[in-house]
């Protein structure tokens, strides 16, 4: 048995949330979480008050390396950076999902895929301008074959991707959604289509990513309030994901949204080759920005653990309860001044910084290799 001592639990589903705990792990599963373990048997690892939460999940990344020009190594932004699960957002389609599945099996990080509605994924980043690059039946076949690997369907909704026909891709995506019973994740960028047009195609459990982008046609009206249509669709069960990315997160938009009580359902990085060295760097730095916005620790950690686990139906990741696999992320928060930047080049000066320590997957320890 392994005993992890002197950690502070961050899991609002647990009765010991925000208290110092010891975690008992045996055969890759959580045996118990107690305030103090006084037994003498087992392999003890002593910590110094670091935080422990369910394993972090990054809902939007690009890790189909060597196939798309933007993808990077999953372990670099996964377990080596304190993240247990990464979800690739449309880098592969039905024509190459099998290759991606085989690649994913070689990584330490748990990898899931939003399959691109376009057969070739992001091999060509104008993937929906050619209507023949979508094959509904073959996509459904691959979704059935790789049911556990594929968590949903990815559609990139912007004029540069779709061209003039912004309706047909959604009609095909909706057909796939209905027949597969898996949600759609939509990249929302430069319009057309508008936010309102995109949302008209979505239903409960579908996901909008890049929800706080600062481009024209974003979620704010002229008075910097959330557009009513966004609020009504949230009531219908549409989920809003951050998807920071190279040019898809505005700190100011997120701040105005907070003032209007419009919070994200999940935080994700949209990490890829061209933003790894700025402005994103890591999922931890996305968390830093939302802590600086004034959100509580429980809220922010929920958005990289419990909420995304529920959104993609990832059993065992939605809480640290006895009997679940021991999939944990360990981190600390240091008092340190640091300058961060959003996708609009707005500078964010923070006074405390999340530092990742390690990940446990099925009870096996993986130490972090990279700073934020």
Helix percentage? 10-25%
Number of helices: 11
Whole-number average pLDDT?
96
Give the overall shape, derived from the CA principal axes: globular
Descriptive account of the structure:
The protein contains eleven helices and 15 strands. It is α/β, with parallel strands linked by helices and 372 residues long. Strands 1, 2, 3, 4, 5, 13, 14 and 15 form an eight-stranded mixed beta sheet that branches. A hairpin with a 2-residue loop joins β2 and β3 (29-34). The longest helix has 13 residues, at 168-180. The radius of gyration is 20 Å and the shape is globular. The protein starts with a strand and ends in a 5-residue tail after the last strand.
Question: What's this model, at a glance?
Answer:
With 372 residues, this protein is α/β, with parallel strands linked by helices. Helices cover 23% and strands 26% of the residues. It is built from eleven helices and 15 strands.
Architecture blueprint of SSEs:
Layout: E1 2-9, E2 20-26, E3 29-34, E4 43-46, E5 51-54, E6 57-61, H1 74-77, E7 85-89, H2 97-104, E8 110-116, H3 136-145, E9 150-157, H4 159-162, H5 168-180, E10 184-188, H6 195-200, E11 207-209, H7 228-235, E12 239-241, H8 251-259, H9 283-292, H10 297-302, H11 306-311, E13 328-341, E14 347-361, E15 364-367
Parallel strand pairs: 1-4, 1-5, 6-7, 7-8, 8-9, 9-10, 10-11, 11-12
Antiparallel strand pairs: 1-2, 2-3, 5-13, 13-14, 14-15
Key descriptive features of the protein:
7-stranded parallel sheet, 15 strands, 372 residues, 8-stranded mixed sheet, alpha/beta, globular, 23% helix, single chain
């Amino acid at each position: 048995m392994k005993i992890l001592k002197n950690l502070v639990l961050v899991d609002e589903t647990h009765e010991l949330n925000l208290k110092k705990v010891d975690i008992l792990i045996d055969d890759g599963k959580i045996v118990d979480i107690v305030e103090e373990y006084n037994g003498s048997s087992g392999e003890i690892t002593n910590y110094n008050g670091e935080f422990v939460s369910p394993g972090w999940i990054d809902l939007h990344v690009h890790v189909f390396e060597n196939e798309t020009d933007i993808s990077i190594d999953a372990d670099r932004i996964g377990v080596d950076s304190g993240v247990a699960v990464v979800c690739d957002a449309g880098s592969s389609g039905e024509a190459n999902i099998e290759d991606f599945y085989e690649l994913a099996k070689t990584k330490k990080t748990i990898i899931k895929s939003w399959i691109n509605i376009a057969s070739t994924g992001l091999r060509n980043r104008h993937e929906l301008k050619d209507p023949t690059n979508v094959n509904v039946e073959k996509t459904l076949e691959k979704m059935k074959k790789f049911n556990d690997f594929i968590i949903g369907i990815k559609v990139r909704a912007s004029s540069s991707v779709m061209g003039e026909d912004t309706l047909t891709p959604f009609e095909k995506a909706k057909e796939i959604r209905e027949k597969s019973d898996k949600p759609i994740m939509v990249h929302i960028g430069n319009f057309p289509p508008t936010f309102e047009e995109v949302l008209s195609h979505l239903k409960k459990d579908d996901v909008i990513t890049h929800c706080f982008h600062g481009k024209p046609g974003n979620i704010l009206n002229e008075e910097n309030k959330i557009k009513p249509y966004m609020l009504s669709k949230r009531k219908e069960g549409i989920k809003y994901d951050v998807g920071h990315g190279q040019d898809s997160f505005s700190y100011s938009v997120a701040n105005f949204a907070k003032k209007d009580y419009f919070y994200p359902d999940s935080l994700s990085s949209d990490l890829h080759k061209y933003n790894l060295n700025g402005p994103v760097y890591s999922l931890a730095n996305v968390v830093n920005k939302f802590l600086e916005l004034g959100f509580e620790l429980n809220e922010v950690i929920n958005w990289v653990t419990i909420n995304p686990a529920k959104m993609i139906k990832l059993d065992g990741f939605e809480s640290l309860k006895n009997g679940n696999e021991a999939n944990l992320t360990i981190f600390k928060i240091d008092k340190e001044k640091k300058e961060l930047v959003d996708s609009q080049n707005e500078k964010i000066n923070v006074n405390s910084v999340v530092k990742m320590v390690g990940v446990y997957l099925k009870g096996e320890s993986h130490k972090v290799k990279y700073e934020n």
